[in-house]
Structures are given as C-alpha cells and as structure tokens.
From TrEMBL, chain A:
Keyword Phosphoprotein: no
Gene3D superfamilies the record matches: P-loop containing nucleotide triphosphate hydrolases (3.40.50.300)
Annotated source species: Murimonas intestini
Residue ranges annotated for the ABC transporter domain, each copy included: 4-229
The name this protein goes by in its record: ABC-2 type transport system ATP-binding protein
Keyword check for Nucleotide-binding: yes
GO molecular function: ATP binding; ATP hydrolysis activity
Signal peptide: none
Keywords (A to Z) from UniProt: ATP-binding, Nucleotide-binding
Cross-referenced CDD domains: ABC_DR_subfamily_A
SMART domains recorded: AAA
From TrEMBL, chain B:
Species in which this protein is naturally found: Murimonas intestini
Organism superkingdom: Bacteria
Transmembrane region(s): 12-35, 47-65, 86-108, 142-169, 181-201, 223-246
The protein, known as: ABC transporter permease
Record's keyword terms, sorted: Membrane, Transmembrane, Transmembrane helix
Automatic annotation (TrEMBL), chain C:
Biological classification of the source: Bacteria, Bacillati, Bacillota, Clostridia, Lachnospirales
PANTHER family named in the record: GNTR-FAMILY TRANSCRIPTIONAL REGULATOR, HTH-TYPE TRANSCRIPTIONAL REPRESSOR YTRA
Domain of life: Bacteria
Keywords: DNA-binding, Transcription, Transcription regulation
GO MF: DNA binding; DNA-binding transcription factor activity
Stated name of the protein: GntR family transcriptional regulator
Residue ranges of every copy of the HTH gntR-type domain listed in the record: 9-77
Transmembrane segments: none
Pfam families (alphabetical): GntR
Family annotation (InterPro entries): Tscrpt_reg_HTH_GntR, WH-like_DNA-bd_sf, WH_DNA-bd_sf
Organism for this UniProt entry: Murimonas intestini
Amino acid sequence: MSGIELRGVSKRFKDVTALDNVTLNFEENKIYGLLGRNGAGKSTMLNIISNRLFPDEGEVLLDGQPVRENDMAQGQIFLISEKTLYPEKMKIKEAFKWTQEFYPDFDVEKARSLAEEFGLSDKKKVDSLSTGYETIFKVILALCVNVPYVFFDEPVLGLDANHRELFYKHLLTKYGEDPFTAVISTHLIEEVSNVIEEIVIIKRGKIIYNESRDELLGKGYTVSGNAGRVDSYIKGRDVIGTDSLGGLKTAYLLGRPDRGSMPEGLELTGMDLQKLFIQLTNE
Amino acid sequence: MKLKAAFKFEIRDFLTTVFSVYGVMMLINIIAIVVQLASKNNFKTNMTLNGAEIILIVTVFIIAAGDFRENFQMLMQNGVSRKTIFISKAGTGLMFALILSIADRLFIFLSRIISDLAGVTKSTESVWIQIYPEFADKHNAVWSFIAFAAVGAAVYICSYMLGTVLSGLIYRLGKGGRTALAIALPVTAFVLVPLLLEIFWETAFVRWLIHTLVTILGLGKGIPYPAAATFTVLSCILGAASWLIIRRAVPKD
Amino acid sequence: MKIDFEDERPIFQQIALGIEDAILTGAFEEEEQIPSITEFSVTYKINPATALKGINLLVDAGVLYKKRGVGMFVTEGAVMKLKEKRKEEFYDSYVRSLIEEAKKLGISGDEIIAMVARGYER
C-alpha cells in the first residue's frame, strides 16, 4: 500500500495512554486535517511517524517499508512542531542552507523569497525570533522542503491574520502546482476546514473519525429561528446541540434537511463543524 | 545522503575552533620567546608550554560535550536516524583524532624550529616526550612521529567519546539524575578516591593498581604502545556506551 | 463570486453557481478560458479537490469543457443553456423565498405585484 500507514500503533507515557492501537493511512497527494483536543495524541502520532519517538506497539510504514530508524523513508517526511530544534545561534539563511544539505530538494530561493514576503529577515538568529516569527520560519521550511509527506503541527498558532492568509495561499498554490501530502494537525477546526480534503479526528489516543471533509459536512445541518418553532422541528430528530439567546434558538442536527419543505420562519444553514467536533470529542 | 550531511554538520565548526587554539598556543610560544630574548640574563625560563597536546585533548572533550544536545536535535529535525547520528559522531571523533594527532606533531616541530632560530630554549614540549623521554631518545624522528601520533590519536578519540558519553548522559537524565551526577562526579573524584587511596595506600591492592596502570600505559618500559592500545580499547567501550545512550534518545524541550 | 461558508449548500455547489453567474453576466465569455483550479482554490482558500468538484458539475452539464494541457473553457452556447436552466429554477430560487419573507411581513400578493411593476419601470 502506498502512502504512510500506521498499524496498531500504541504509545504510553507513564500511566497515560497517548495512542491506543491506531490504524490509519495517509494517502498520497491529499490535504489532511488531524483534529483533536489538546493532549488527544496528535503530536505523539506525528513524532512517531517522523522517528522522534518510538511506539510501544505497532509500526509505521511508508510504501510498505518501516519508517523507524530509516534514513531513506525519513528523507520523504518532514515535520514542523512547536519545538524548534534548530541551533539557537544559527542564522535563518544558514538554517535554509543546512536543511538543503539534509533534504536536497529543498528550494533555498523560494525560502528566501517567502521570508521576504512574510517579513522575516534571514540574517536573524533563531533565538532572536518572536514566537510568531519562529512559527513562520518553520512554516517556510515546510513549504520549501519538497518532500512527499509534510506534517504541520499547529502551523498557525501565534500567526496574525495576514500571515495566516499567506500561509494558506502558499500551501494551496504549492499543492496545486506540485501535489504532495500535507497533514495539518490543529484544534482550530473552522479555519482549516475548507482547505483540507480529509478529516481525521482523534480523541484520547483513538481515531474516532476518518473520512472526507465533504462527507462529514454532509452529515448535518443547522436550523435557527423562533424557539418554539425550532423545538417542534427538532422533535424526533437527531440533535447534537442547541444554543439559546432569548427567544431565538439554534439547533445543530445530524442528517439531511429537506430544503424544499423547511417550515416557515426557520433559517437553514450548513453543518457547524466546530459544534460537531465539540460534540464528538466531549467526555 | 543523510550520513554525509550529518557528518558535515558535526564538524562544521571544527576547523575554526582548532585553528584558534593552535593560534593561541603559537602566540603563547612567541610571547615566551620574546620574553626570553628580552631578558638581559637570557635566563632559562620555565615558560614553556608543557604538554601542549593536553590543551587540545581538553578542547576536543569540550567540543564533543558541548554540541551534543544542539546537534542531536538538529539531526532529529532533519530526518536523520540515530544509527546515522552515531556513525557520524564516531567518524567525527576519528577525523579529529587523525588530523589533530598529526597537527600536534607538526606544531611542536614548528615551535622548536622557531625557538632554535631565535636561539632560545624550546618553548613548547610535547606531553608524550615528557612521559616517554627514553623512547624519544632511542628512536629516530620519523618513528617517534608515528608512535606519538598514534598514542595521541587514541587519546583524542577517547576524549571525544568521553565528551559524547557525558553530555549524552546529561541530556538523557532528568533533573534528578543530573543533580545526582553533578554531585557524584566531583565527590567521587575529589573526595572518595583520594580518601580511599590514602587509607589503602600501603596495601597490596593499591600497589597492584599502580602496577597495572604503569603497565597499560607502558610507563615501566617507557614505550607508548601499550597506552595507544589501552586508549583505543577505552574508546571502543565509550563508543559502545554512547551508542546505548543515543539509540533511545528523544528530542526534548 | 463569493462563498458563504455558513450556507447549507456545499462549497463545490457554490463554486459551480458562482461560475454560472460569471458566465451569465459575461465575466467569463464563451470559448474563453476560465481561471485554473489552483487559482480558484488559492483565491477562496478552499481545497482544490472541492474546486474541481464544482467545475466538474459544469463540465457534466456541458457548460464548461476541458482543453488538454491548457485548461477549462466556457462552451459555446453556454449562456443560452444556463438561462434556460435558471428560468426553470427561478420559482424555487427566488419566488418562494420572496413570498415567505412577504408573508412574514404581512405583504399581500397584490402588493408584491405592484412592487415588481415598480421595479421594472426603473
């Protein structure tokens, strides 16, 4: 099987089970959203795939070959995480140069131009960057490394709106011109939901959802309006949550609405992914 | 490939550091010579760089020790397996050893020439000649060169591996372990060992210990070969230890 | 063309509708090339597969066609086709919600007709 395959991967830290028998496949050339609450196991999973941590059970394969301690396989994988593992006193432009040593397809020219676009001076040292710019530095690395599987662990935390927009723009441009597999791990669901094609939801170390985003979005809808009308509409229907503001009520439902026969006075909108996510991942 | 890149990364500051150290040592030499020349009585000064190689052995130890965390994390970020990290470190140690052991001999040769030209007593002395003086007298320059370079190389690799093992241990141990190590090491070295030696000085055990040390360092016979062998074996042991430390290391905050 | 992420209709459908609108208003002309999938995805920050899905809807409907190695083009006669289709959907798309809103506000059928007449005079 091509792609990156996790088979029965488990990982425990003292008495906490971070990953529980995870079986999952990241296919070629797709953008994935790896969604989960803080501490759900997302980072642990990514660290195991990139050979930073070892699983207690199970294995990770790339095109059928184990990725563990495998230089060849790891040459096709790149992970950026909240930890910055580059030497503190290294200049950004040196960092680009060194990354190219390890990943020969790294595009230094593109990195320099992205740095300029983001407003990052490449003469600065890694430890002199603010949190936001540290993230930008890592994001630039990930956008220029040119390997088939790039993992982004919380790539937009700490980025202002302009930089976030730039990130998505460059991610999609690169993906459009030169498809690869991007896995964005985040708990900011709404923002990434349009950019991703596949959704994997992880809760307490277990995969609870693994399908396409369109399927998930198609699973439900939202109605809002007068509280009384909403209540009568939702009778007997699969409700995942409600919000009330005075006499105005909003209900989040599973299933498909009949657009043609919606009762008067009720507004119909799409599935609220965040609400669904909260519902699915609540204790 | 990753190994080549890892190796290149490990040695990135090597040349500049080493040049600086040799540069400083040469500077000290020149100062010593100048002092001698300037002094009216042309007194035989004690200002010699005794055991020049010691400085570099310590430098190598410091390089190996200081870079562990930074290098390990950088290599982890760039998809290098721990196997390859270890091999690149071993290769680096070997390379340092070979280059420095030869550079040492050349440095000492050079300083001797300068001192002779200036007409003063030599300002630098090799630690090996100081430990094995009869050997230097008995053998020709070429053979001394090779023999001292060999023992120097062995000590260099050992120093490098020791630096790697110690910093690796410190990296992997948690706060508790590091505190324990920080206390245990100096206490053992400066309190326990002297105490034990003092108590058991007259005993057969200590005599045996000294005898063994003399033998493996070849001091009794005045030859450097046993020392070369000993430090090589020690390097292998330390190398194995460093592999055990690296193979399960993970990136930390 | 604007995408309403809150809308109940899937994004790919909205893309298709947006392109249809552009064709009808002449922004995209017949036998002319339309922006690439990458351009759509980057502009609206959506996954290219979604953009592709929307475009494929229109290819299936004969409104767009693909020129290999070049890109997507508007078919000849697309405007006519779309007008026909939209006329059929006019009642459901507009009239129904118009009447709904009018009922909410208590506007009678006759008042609506008068309003429409007034609108056409402008």
